[in-house]
Design a protein that fits this description.
The complex is a heterodimer of chains A (594) and B (520). Chain A is of the alpha/beta class. Chain A has helices spanning 3-17, 37-40, 50-72, 79-86, 168-172, 192-200, 246-249, 257-270, 276-280, 321-368, 370-386, 409-418, 431-441, 461-466, 493-499, 518-527, 532-539, 541-546; strands at residues 104-115, 118-128, 131-136, 146-155, 157-162, 203-208, 216-224, 300-310, 424-428, 449-453, 470-473, 503-506, 564-568, 577-583, 586-589. In chain A, helix 10 packs across helix 12 (409-418) and helix 10 packs parallel to helix 13 (431-441). Chain A is elongated and about 100 Å long. By secondary structure, chain B is α/β, with parallel strands linked by helices. Chain B starts with a helix and ends with a helix. Classes of the chains: A alpha/beta (594), B alpha/beta (520).
Chain lengths: 594, 520
């Protein structure tokens, strides 16, 4: 555990060395040099020495890569690619990227954690086109497949309580309503370094929530954390990547491309100004459009993963006890409206069917009685005219088609929550509020409750278990002062809840930057009594199941998205090192990028 | 516009200066010949010793001296010392309004013509800097704003100024004040969703034989004859409401018409994006609601990061100053500068440069169109593209390609006479001709005289001394002469007062003053 801060220091230092350019995609060849474990594995270093050694190691590696990469490269390899290979040295701290399509990877694990409670020794994972296509022992991959080796391989972590990548205002706003969408507040251009940090910590996806502290904050989403970070959705064709003159380059490329160039140039100078053309190369793949396109990006795993609400959270001043109970009531009223809408819809569907049937029968009858009816009508009309009376046509009451229930956009979302389609995530901390919430929800048995925070939930553990609620805990050692007023985070809470049979998840408290410490927090929780297996589940499968993405992520199984961590050490040990991170089958983090 | 005492004072000055300008317009003949040492017809094309003939407001001939027949009865202006240049075109601005609506979130039913203030300084300023056509749109602080209007900066009424009325809608993909990205997006979504629901309800009511909409239309005194009595199926590439042909168009709510036109692809849209993340949202919104092909993106500096997205969409853009984007790198803390126009040019985006800011803090130079184009050149934008970005491209964006933006036969006679190379800080606009009439003559620019030579404007007590007969009229000239001493005294007092005022109303400086001072 104590090595974690060291690790972070190393990360920060390396980030500086890399001059943030790490946020830049690089035009790396598809076939990358052989698994760097060869050099990496053999050096179990104390954390304090890591930095220097890593640098050396990387340099060595990249030098040794050159000939191999070139020999591997087929005829189609352009000059540019070669340049890139040479440029490996400049790219020391940068991740390499491989295009999505057709990439095959074989991962050999000494210990493969397929899902919580199940593990295989000396097993392999075969990844193709972003998905896991094979799990088992002694898998054979096609020739030329890149092979990675690792001590431990497991599924990428899911942070169930985060706000990384969300536009600033949207995080703190209290004005959101049930129908606001978090994916519309995701900013693919901002804070790539925070998402990168999270990836380094092994967190490959997160449930992000805008307006998490609003009474009702709208729909949260589960997103891949590699959005907007280096992900080459549309690899640029070669010619476009040709180096351009240095002077005109600075602004032409992507966010921070110029920064990177500066970094590169500086490095070049240090290298003795080996060649100017090197400096331009990194900017060559120019700008890769971020994956995130609201509503249809592959970065969004579930755009309606949860509806967020909060109770007793200080907004404009601390709410008094009456306010807090009022908040529970208001949430109840919103759920009532949603349930009512569901009921109305069912009634409407029944009424409509009934009406259509009646009309059909009536028409049949009318057709039969047509002549008689006509005669009657004419007679009636004639009589009316004779008596100078107004002739009124009979309006069939059947003409009144039942009207569909009208619903506000909020009600429509609440209806989905009331029916249990979308989980309800409520941030609440005090025991009375949680109790009030549970009482209120008795009227809504279908609602899937997820509590966030739940600082004082321990006495209510059995009630929560009875409700089959999940709880996202935020076990920080000191308390981050969020939410203010609860500085004494009980690190044992997760263990107590788990023992009572409550599903426990571990999240970073809705912060922007906390996701990177998820494994540390899980470790803390284990240290304070949480079952180890439950802690691992909390980071992977349990979180994925809670937010309806377990069909794609959360475990290492055939057919799932290849979100994998290749580790040196146990995943829950803060001293474990994340060697490679794969998201959607793409390597987004390599050891030298650390 | 804030109405501080200083602007009130200056406004009276402006009124009188416009009176002079308009009297000049009235005298001008229908035929005008402009001679210039160089005639720059469009970016990259120029004629040495050229002649432009303008008849009835349109350019009839452009050519070299000697090759062009000059009508014998035409007024001739210009000379070999001048450079003739097409009038600048402002692709969109929200200056010159009495006050923009920025209260109502969704207000497509509002028309900017009700807000345009013809004696606003901004128009005088535009004229002084050679802008002859401008698209006035509501500012970006909205969800869906009102309808804009294309005007020329001359005239005392909105109708005199009008070039194109009932024009495009302004939308904002970026959060308006008090909103966040999430709530702004929600408000936009809801606006179109609610429109669709209302239309569907009207169709259903019609099918159910309910006549409420008709009664409502009659009650509101709406026209229900001719075309309005007919229904029309919904068009457009976005979503559709089936059966809209059942509802006569006159029965549709007037507040819904503009948005419906937008969805049907019959109205232009200007979508404001303050940050790169908004660009894709703007394009998605436009695509989902069927107005992508009529969308122009209005982009702040940060949007250069989304240049690829803009380029892939093929939509034109309007770049808002400052054109040099400065950002602090989150890890190193270094400031990173990006020349926005150059980036977009290299990505192949068709863009115009505009002269307003989307930010609260703006420099006076942000309001000078040619100066922004000149800055872009300094930041690496090719000169021809910079010139195009303030002439031909905005003309194209506004759908006025065959009217403004270049000096060609058949186009509007909007010509600038400059005393040097265009887009140079040493060059001044000497004459502005709008549709064949001299709208601005620098030698008679009262405000410049006031600013540069210290002459008091006519019509003021103090101004009588400087302008005498010209300012106060001949009958008053003698009286003025008699009162000259008194006036001189007052002038001194006036200056003292103004000095005080200037101090007190520092931030309320009018744009025109500030820009003038900058140049002076």
């Amino acid at each position: 555990m104590s090595s974690r801060p060291f690790l972070r220091l190393v990360l920060i230092a390396s980030a500086f060395l890399g001059a943030l350019s790490s946020a830049q995609p690089l035009p790396f060849p598809v076939q990358d040099p052989p698994a760097p474990e060869e050099s990496g594995e053999k050096k179990p270093d104390g954390p304090g020495q890591e930095e220097k050694k890593e640098d050396k190691k990387d340099e060595k590696k990249s030098e040794s890569d050159k000939p191999e990469a070139e020999s591997k490269s087929s005829a189609k390899k352009s000059d540019k690619d070669k340049k890139d290979d040479k440029k490996d040295k400049d790219a020391l701290k940068r991740p390499k990227l491989a295009p999505v399509e057709g990439t095959t990877l074989l991962i050999r694990a000494k210990r493969l954690l397929t899902r919580p409670g199940e593990e295989l020794a000396n097993a392999d994972v075969l990844v193709r086109d972003g998905a896991i296509v094979g799990v088992g022992k002694g898998l054979v991959a096609p020739e030329g497949t890149r092979t990675l080796e690792a001590d431990v391989v497991c599924a990428g972590f899911l942070d169930p309580w985060s706000s990384v990548g969300i536009e600033e205002e949207s995080i703190g706003t209290f004005d959101a309503t049930a129908d606001s969408l978090t994916i519309e507040a995701l900013d693919a251009y901002r804070d790539p370094h925070l998402r990168r940090q999270a990836l380094r910590g092994g967190v490959t996806s997160a449930r992000v929530q805008a307006a998490g502290r609003a009474r009702v904050g709208g729909l949260g989403a589960v997103v891949r954390l590699d959005f907007g970070v280096d992900v080459a959705t549309t690899p640029k064709p070669e010619p476009e990547a040709a180096p351009k003159p240095a002077a005109s380059e600075s602004g032409a490329s992507q966010p921070g491309a110029d920064k990177k160039e500066k970094g590169d140039k500086e490095k070049d100078k240090k290298d003795g100004g080996k060649s100017d053309s090197k400096a331009e190369a990194p900017a060559a793949p120019v700008h890769h459009a971020p994956v995130l396109a609201p509503r249809h990006g592959n970065a969004v795993l579930n755009e309606a993963a949860s509806l967020s609400a909060s109770i007793g959270i200080p907004r404009q001043g601390n709410p008094d006890p009456f306010d807090r109970i009022g908040e529970v009531d208001r949430l109840g009223a919103a759920l009532d409206a949603g349930r009512r809408l569901n009921e109305q819809r069912i009634t409407f569907a029944e009424d409509l069917a009934k009406w259509e049937k009646e009309i059909a029968e009536k028409e049949k009858q009318l057709e039969k009685d047509f002549k008689k009816a006509k005669k009657d009508r004419e007679k009636e009309q004639k009589d009316a005219e004779e008596k100078a009376k107004e002739f009124k046509e009979k309006a069939y009451k059947e003409d009144k088609r039942p009207t569909p229930p009208s619903a506000s956009p909020e009600d429509e979302v609440m209806a989905r929550v009331a029916s249990g389609e979308v989980p309800l995530v409520v941030e609440a901390h005090r025991a009375p509020e949680i109790r009030a919430l549970l009482d209120m929800l008795r009227a809504h048995p279908r609602v899937r409750l997820v509590l966030a925070g739940a600082t004082e939930a321990a006495p209510l553990a059995s009630a929560l278990a009875e409700r089959s609620a999940a709880v996202i805990v935020f076990p920080t050692p000191l308390g981050t002062g969020r939410p203010s007023g609860w500085t004494e985070h009980d690190l044992g809470l997760a263990g107590v809840l788990d023992a009572a049979g409550v599903r426990v998840l571990i999240g970073s408290g809705g912060s922007r930057a906390g996701a990177s410490d998820l494994a540390l927090m899980a470790g803390l929780a284990v240290g304070h009594g949480l079952d180890r297996e439950a802690a691992f589940a909390a980071l992977t499968l349990a979180a994925a199941e809670t937010f309806d993405v377990a069909d794609r992520i959360g475990s290492v199984e055939v057919g799932k998205q290849a979100d994998l961590l290749l580790l040196k050490g146990d995943p829950l040990s803060p001293a474990a090192r994340v060697q490679y991170v794969l998201v959607g089958g793409q390597i987004v983090l390599e050891p030298e990028a650390r | 516009m804030q109405t501080s005492p200083s602007t009130l004072f200056a406004r009276s000055v402006l009124a009188s200066s416009f009176a002079l300008l308009t009297s000049g317009l009235a005298l001008a003949a229908d035929k005008l010949v402009i001679e210039a040492g160089r005639v720059i017809t469009r970016p990259g094309h120029e004629i040495k010793n050229g002649v432009i003939v303008i008849e009835n407001g349109r350019i009839t001939k452009v050519g070299a001296q000697g090759e062009v027949d000059k009508p014998w009865d035409a007024t001739v202006i210009g000379g070999p010392q001048y450079v003739a240049f097409p009038g600048f075109v402002e692709a969109q601005t929200s200056r010159g309004l009495d006050r923009p609506n920025e209260n109502i979130d969704v207000a497509p039913f509002l028309d900017i013509r009700d807000s345009i203030d013809p004696i606003n300084f901004a128009y005088e300023d535009y004229l002084r800097h050679g802008v002859t056509t401008l698209n006035v749109q509501q500012g970006g602080n909205c969800v869906i704003g009102g309808r804009g209007m294309v005007v020329r900066p001359v005239g005392m009424t909105v109708d005199e100024m009008a070039v194109r009325t009932d024009y495009a809608l302004k939308l904002s993909a970026s959060p308006k004040a008090g909103k966040s990205a999430a709530t702004q997006a929600m408000a936009l979504r809801r606006a179109f969703e609610e429109l669709r629901k209302r239309l569907e309800k009207q169709v259903q009511d019609k099918r159910d034989g309910k006549a409420r909409d008709k009664r409502e239309a009659l009650f509101q005194g709406r026209e229900l004859e001719g075309d309005k009595a007919k229904g029309r199926a919904m068009e457009g590439k976005g979503w559709r409401v089936d059966g809209l042909e059942l509802v006569p168009r006159g029965e549709l709510d007037e507040k819904d018409l503009q948005l419906l036109e937008l969805v049907e692809g019959k109205r232009d849209a200007y979508v404001w994006c303050a940050a790169a993340m908004d660009v894709r949202k703007a394009l998605d919104l436009a695509k989902e609601n069927g107005f992508l092909e009529r969308t122009t993106l209005v982009l702040a500096g940060d949007c250069w990061k989304a240049a690829d997205v803009v380029a892939a969409s093929g939509r034109p853009a309007i770049l808002i100053p400052p054109l040099l984007h400065v950002e602090t790198e989150p890890i190193t803390g270094k400031e990173v500068e990006t020349p926005v126009a150059k980036v977009f040019a290299e990505k192949g985006v068709k863009f115009a440069i505009a002269s307003e800011t989307g930010q609260a803090s703006s420099l006076p130079s942000h309001h000078v169109l040619w100066y922004q184009a000149a800055l872009a050149i300094g930041q690496g934008l090719p000169r021809e593209r910079a010139i195009a970005a303030v002439t031909t491209v905005p003309a194209e964006i506004l759908g006025l390609r065959d009217r403004v933006g270049s000096l060609e036969e058949g186009k509007d006679g909007n010509v600038l006479l400059l005393d040097g190379e265009p887009l140079s800080v040493r060059t001044h606009v000497q004459f502005v001709v709008i549709e064949g009439k001299t709208a601005y003559d620098r030698s008679k620019d009262i405000r410049l005289k006031h600013l540069l030579e210290g002459k008091e404007p006519p019509g003021t007590q103090a101004g009588a001394a400087d302008f005498g007969a010209a300012g106060a009229g001949k009958a008053d000239a003698k009286k003025d002469a008699l009162k000259q001493d008194e006036a001189a005294e007052r002038k001194a007092g006036e200056e003292q007062r103004k000095a005080d005022e200037k101090q007190s109303s520092g931030p309320h400086f009018s744009d025109a003053d500030a820009a003038g001072e900058e140049r002076g």
